[in-house]
Amino acid sequence: MGNYKSRPPSSCTDELKKKISEGYAVVRSRLNDDVKPRFDAWNTIQNTCFQGTAKTLEEQLKGVESLDERTEDHQLSLLHLICAGHSEQQAEKIVQLFDACGDDEAKKEMLLKHQSKNGFSALHFAVYKGETETVEELLAAGADVDFGGRNKLPPLHLAVMCGNDELVDRLIEHGASLNAVDFVHFTPLHSATYFAHEKVRNVKFKITNCLKVYQLDLKRTALLF
């Protein structure tokens, strides 16, 4: 951004806005790339995770040798594929996958923390797609509600970016930090202010009220763009 002293404040502000906008555009692009179906490149159980029935997956899991297999293209786990997929039974599939792990907590944790080639967890996928029931199952299984991953993008920030006030509620209920910052050093309230989408008022209201309830540090004033 060059020497701030030699440039008009408005110029620096415009450049900052541009960098923030470009950063979030990259996030959307990477997420869209990750959740895109690639049926021809996936094996049978991977395709079932994405679009098959829960009953079919249950049968296939009985004979699978390893639950930590990945797709060759984007390094997606079976859990990623379930969260990226299209079916009313996706939440049920998550339960089946973790049941297949048995008492192996390390295996469950590995599935929850594994990141795709583009740096996203299964929880990121579920939040981005707006799948509330799927998100609930992941959190119930022990997913870290504040896990930002390589992209430094906490799930709550992603829900705010998408304007999903229901998921904002759920994530806060599960203890999502209201002081966490993302890759542009935005708190959730900063994000709610920046993304002036249709539901931003509800999102800002929820976050602001929670901040008051928990008496968190409000010295950082949300940037008004």
From TrEMBL:
Alphabetical list of PROSITE patterns matching this protein: ANK_REP_REGION, ANK_REPEAT
InterPro entries listed in its UniProt record: Ankyrin_rpt, Ankyrin_rpt-contain_sf
UniProt keyword terms in alphabetical order: ANK repeat, Repeat
Top-rank lineage group of the source organism: Eukaryota
Coiled-coil stretches: none
SUPFAM superfamilies reported in the protein's UniProt record: Ankyrin repeat
ANK repeat residues: 118-150, 151-183
Transmembrane segments: none
Name of the featured protein: ANK_REP_REGION domain-containing protein
Species of the source: Gongylonema pulchrum
